[in-house]
Amino acid sequence: xxxxxxxxxxxxxxxxxxxxxxxxxxxxxxxxxxxxxxxxxxxxxxxxxxxxxxxxxxxxxxxxxxxxxxxxxxxxxxxxxxxxxxxxxxxxxxxxxxxxxxxxxxxxx
Length: 109
Fold this sequence. Notes:
Blueprint: H1 18-23, E1 28-31, E2 42-45, H2 73-82, H3 93-108
Antiparallel strand pairs: 1-2
Helix pairs in contact: 2-3
């Protein structure tokens, strides 16, 4: 429409949920240029992890939201985190990082 009621909004979007992101963590989305249309195509690229990219231990710890649905999640977190004591104020960032990584390893099993 070419009148004052013309509303220009970007409607070319990609939507997914957390379960989908868990299945495809390396997915990338790109809006391409206009081509014979007033819409921009969306390119979804699903990339597999290459062997020379290393394993998940090369990345910083990231809590996965689906873990809270596991029956033993709280038990794993409490038992692993509790094994280091409760004096977090005196722990160095390195120690906390080690605790998080260890907890993440247990949750990922």
